[in-house]
């Protein structure tokens, strides 16, 4: 019944006509399974070197003898239950490592098993009550790191891989993943051997638990902040996707995943949703792509490469869009090509020249934002943010993510950094060669 209450509240808030209320959940439902339901792909693994047939723990004092010292403050702003954090990554020997709350290290082992083995040594950092924070001193440099947060216990596994030991992480799009019913998310972190910090919040794949971060510095350059999404953004984005589905009949709302209790846990990007349902949006862009190709058969499309190559003219001939000075042309993109910006005509290959490498992001961004047939859309990038996502078809997930971002930060598709003047910057990245403290807020951004 909780599902129905939440649904009615969601839909009641957005639908003008109560008759539009669907009788079945418009959301995808997580059905968490066991080890057998894990699907190992490049998207949910962190592959390291093999170190030992058993899990090894290092006390904080032993760990502190190593290079590195990064205080990470974890601020609990979450009102909906006990939050756990997990800090995972690769050490300088490329071994999978977790940092615990007391600064001790855990090097989990698969024990040589090619079937994923749950990590049984405690690796969770239990956050204190809402309004309070804990500071974890990371004693080592760490790459490909993530700071995960979840309501409940995330399940991580180790598995033997051909050249080492791999960490199997929760999958956002496998509805049977053991952690699929939990609200979770992560920020990405690299702490280099030069003791520089790069931390990133991205919505390219999904929106989960609400995270923000700031990085203070010791070189007088001040504090950098990425607020990202507001505390109610997941519900608001899913309300928007329910509404969009009622407008155009495409299953936008199925990109939202609820658990069996009816709680929303994630909104997937359309590219990630296509793993669950490849057919749903297969033809979503077809008519628009045809119109664009037809329009730019008789009219030139100008791409400002924003490089020393300047602006180049492009025009469709036959079925191919060709740009002056570009080593090869562009076939019509499919929906999958537009969501991911990295396949079909948008796959950049070795040997592609600088013009090609500049056209791909600008052309794909123009599709994602649906600006190619607007007045002024014949110059890309050209139109400003107020013109993005104003006509359908478009990437309504990206539209909604941007609508609910507080400071415009956090990519909602892979080339969100394309912009006309170089002034707008949707990057969620914080970076400093002189980091003091990295602070991550869970549940709500700092005021
Ligand atoms: C890790 O190794 C597994 C097994 O070989 C492979 O399937 C997976 O794609 C690898 N992950 C990455 C990120 O390369
Ligand atoms: C941050 O995330 C975005 C989107 O996933 C990615 O394109 C960008 O390269 C990342 N930045 C860094 C510094 O890792
Ligand atoms: C956007 O901001 C990020 C992080 O501050 C920076 O690394 C990047 O160079 C900026 N991009 C542009 C186009 O200004
Ligand atoms: C989150 O924590 C920060 C820092 O304590 C505070 O400024 C902000 O008001 C908090 N927001 C909420 C909604 O708790
Ligand atoms: C759906 C999704 O995110 N797929 C990605 C999985 O990883 C490969 C390789 O890194 C990407 O190319 C896919 O886009």
Automatic annotation (TrEMBL):
Boundaries of each GH64 domain copy?
Answer: 67-444
Question: Key word Kinase present in the record?
Answer: no
Q: Span of the secretion signal?
A: 1-16
* Entries under CDD domains matching the protein: GH64-GluB-like (cd09220)
Q: What InterPro entries is this protein classified in?
A: Glyco_hydro_64, Glyco_hydro_64_fam, Glyco_hydro_64_N_2, Osmotin/thaumatin-like_sf
Does the record carry Signal as a key word? yes
Q: Which UniProt keywords apply?
A: Signal
Could you tell me what this protein is called?
A: GH64 domain-containing protein
């Amino acid at each position: 019944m909780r599902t129905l209450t939440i649904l009615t509240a969601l839909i009641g808030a957005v639908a003008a006509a109560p008759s539009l209320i669907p009788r079945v959940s418009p959301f995808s439902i997580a059905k968490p399974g066991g080890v057998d339901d894990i699907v190992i792909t490049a998207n949910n693994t962190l592959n390291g070197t093999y170190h030992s047939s058993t899990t090894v723990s290092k006390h904080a004092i032993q760990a502190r003898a190593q290079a590195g010292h990064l205080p990470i403050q974890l601020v609990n702003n979450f009102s909906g239950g006990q939050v756990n954090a997990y800090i995972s990554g690769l050490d300088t020997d490329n071994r999978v490592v977790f940092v615990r709350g007391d600064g001790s290290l855990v090097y989990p082992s698969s024990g040589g098993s090619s079937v994923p083995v749950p990590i049984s040594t405690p690796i969770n950092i239990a956050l204190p009550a809402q309004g309070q924070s804990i500071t974890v001193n990371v004693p080592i440099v760490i790459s490909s790191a993530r700071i995960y947060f979840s309501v409940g216990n995330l399940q991580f596994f180790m598995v033997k891989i051909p050249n080492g030991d791999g960490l199997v992480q929760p999958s956002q799009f496998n509805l049977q993943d053991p952690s699929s019913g939990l609200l979770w998310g992560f920020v990405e972190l690299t702490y280099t051997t030069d003791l520089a910090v790069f931390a990133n919040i991205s919505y390219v794949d999904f929106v989960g638990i609400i995270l923000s971060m700031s990085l203070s510095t010791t070189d007088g350059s001040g504090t950098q902040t990425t607020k990202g999404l507001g505390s109610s953004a997941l519900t608001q984005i899913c309300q928007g996707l329910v509404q969009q589905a009622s407008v155009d009949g495409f299953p936008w709302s199925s990109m939202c995943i609820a658990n069996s209790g009816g709680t929303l846990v994630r909104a997937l990007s359309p590219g990630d949703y296509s793993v669950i349902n490849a057919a749903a949006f297969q033809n979503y862009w077809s008519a628009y792509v045809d119109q664009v190709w037809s329009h730019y058969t008789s009219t030139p499309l100008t791409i400002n490469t924003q490089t020393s190559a300047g602006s180049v003219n492009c025009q469709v001939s036959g079925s191919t869009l060709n740009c002056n000075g570009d080593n090869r042309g562009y076939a019509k993109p499919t929906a999958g090509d537009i969501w991911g910006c990295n396949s079909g005509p948008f796959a950049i290959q070795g040997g592609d020249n600088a013009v090609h490498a500049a056209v791909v992001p600008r052309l794909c961004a123009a599709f994602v934002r649906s600006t190619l047939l607007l007045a002024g859309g014949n110059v890309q990038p050209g139109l400003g943010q107020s013109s993005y996502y104003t006509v359908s078809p478009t990437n309504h997930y990206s539209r909604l993510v941007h609508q609910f971002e507080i400071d415009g930060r956090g990519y909602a598709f892979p080339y969100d950094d394309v912009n006309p003047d170089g002034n707008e910057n949707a990057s969620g990245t914080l970076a400093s060669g002189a980091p003091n403290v990295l602070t991550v807020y869970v549940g709500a951004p700092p005021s």
